[in-house]
Design a protein that fits this description.
single chain, 219 residues, alpha/beta, Rossmann fold, nine-stranded mixed sheet, two-stranded antiparallel sheet, 6 helices
């Protein structure tokens, strides 16, 4: 079994449809997927469930505006449980914050730049849609893929740096911290959305399949 942990507020979680990502994670892992809110995570539950892996969702609410960074059970799961994990977009940023990095808006749009999603952070640069991401360091996460992966991006914020104790794996010109992994084990973050891959751009599926293979080797 794997767990897909929603990192958004309780109010937004109540209105979310998680079936698409859940099905994708099940297909890529070959495991049933339990969807839960971060507020439901506890040491006791994780030790009882013993999941193969944890996948942390993205979100749009700034993490400092609610208690996701200070929730005791959730912090333990990420920082101390030793369970293989991957953070997706906002989940990637959340892992970075817990280990000492900061999140900020990328930059203001230039006068001649088109805003690809004006309803979300108008006036700010975003990586939106499928983008090529440069692989900087070979890692099992990118097994079978080339020097660039083409993946879905949906973000206006980024980490200022890879956190201490993590190895930078991938980058774009506008967002240098696109993927990282902890030096001591399979705790990954990716700024993009591999769960939103497609037949035209399937690299995200391969990245998830690789992650679950890593998780199996670890456990």
């Amino acid at each position: 079994m794997i767990c897909y942990i929603i990192t958004e507020t309780s109010e937004k979680y109540a209105d979310m449809d998680c079936h698409g990502p859940k099905r994708t994670l099940e297909r890529c892992s070959g495991e049933p997927c339990l969807v839960m809110h971060y507020s439901q995570v506890s040491r006791e539950l994780m030790e009882d469930l013993r999941p193969l892996a944890l996948c942390h969702s993205g979100g749009v609410t700034a993490h400092g505006d609610y208690d996701v960074l200070v929730h005791e059970g959730y912090r333990w799961a990420i920082m101390q449980s030793g369970i293989p994990q991957i953070g997706l977009c906002g989940g990637h940023q959340l892992i970075g914050e817990l280990f000492g990095s900061t999140v900020a808006l990328m930059r203001e749009l230039a006068a001649d730049e088109i805003d690809p999603h004006q309803a979300y952070g108008p006036g700010w640069f975003k990586e939106w849609g499928v983008h090529p991401v440069r692989v900087l360091a070979r890692d099992p996460l990118f097994e079978g893929l080339g020097d660039f992966v083409r993946v879905q991006e949906l973000h206006r914020c980024q980490l200022n740096r890879a956190p201490d104790g993590f190895r930078l794996l991938a980058s774009t010109d506008e967002c240098p911290v696109q993927a990282f992994v902890h030096e001591d084990g399979p705790l990954y973050g990716v700024q993009f959305h591999p769960e939103h891959a497609s037949e035209t751009y399937p690299d995200g599926w391969r990245i998830l399949e690789n992650f679950f293979a890593i998780a199996r080797q670890t456990t």
